[in-house]
From TrEMBL:
Keywords: Cell membrane, Membrane, Transmembrane, Transmembrane helix. Its main location: membrane. It comes from Arthrobacter liuii. Belongs to the DedA family. This is VTT domain-containing protein. The keyword Aminoacyl-tRNA synthetase does not apply. It is found in: Cell membrane. The keyword Membrane applies. It comes from the Bacteria.
Length: 207
């Protein structure tokens, strides 16, 4: 990739979407939202295919959710504790679950991905609660499509309306997405008062 050529960013982005979005399912600090929004901005600039970005983002989101779901459904989360980085991730999962509570309804599976950490917490909680594989897979798939449409659309809209360079449009889209996600997160977490489904499990030592 030639970082000095803007035209090369569109092609390179296709290779980054899947690993980053899947990784974000386990480790939320990974900036997958920014990559997807950038894909939308690049599409508005004619440097990426908006439909391909949508498909890649949705498929990667669904795959990541299914990985986390099965990891906790089969009680294999202890595998993470073999490595220091895994213990940190595992501790972060417990923290996210503590905030999310026990909610694992199908509506939550679809909608929680729009708030910070909600995708990880809901997928893990659904696995622990033994939600049906088919039910979770369908809801995760629908949620993944909506999530991809929202982020790609956000990037495309800002790119089309501002007429700024794609990186500036991406930053604006990320800022708008963070604000909306934070507001939704505050509303949702205030309504949840249930105990965490892993409250009785010992936290891994992240040290």
């Amino acid at each position: 990739m030639d970082f000095g050529s803007v035209d090369s960013w569109g092609a390179a982005l296709y290779f980054w979407v899947i690993p980053l979005v899947i990784g974000d399912a386990i480790f939320p600090p990974i900036p997958s939202e920014m990559v997807v929004i950038t894909g939308g901005a690049l599409s508005a600039d004619g440097r990426a295919n908006v439909f391909l970005v949508l498909v890649l983002a949705a498929v990667a989101s669904w795959l990541g959710d299914m990985v986390v779901f099965h990891l906790f459904r089969r009680r294999l989360s202890h595998v993470l504790d073999r490595w220091k980085w895994g213990r940190r991730v595992h501790s972060g999962i417990h923290a996210a679950l503590a905030k999310a509570g026990r909610s694992s309804t199908y509506g939550t599976i679809i909608g929680a991905r729009f708030i910070p950490g909600g995708r990880l917490a809901t997928s893990a909680a659904s696995g622990i609660a033994n939600v049906s594989v088919r039910g979770f897979g369908l809801c995760a798939g629908l949620g993944a499509v909506l999530w991809a449409c929202w982020l790609v659309g956000l990037g495309y809209f800002t790119g089309s309306t501002t007429k700024l360079p794609f990186w500036a449009s991406s930053l604006i889209g990320v800022a708008v997405g963070l604000v909306i996600g934070a507001v939704v997160g505050i509303i949702v977490t205030r309504r949840r008062g249930d105990r965490s489904p892993v409250e009785d499990e010992p936290l891994p030592d992240a040290g």
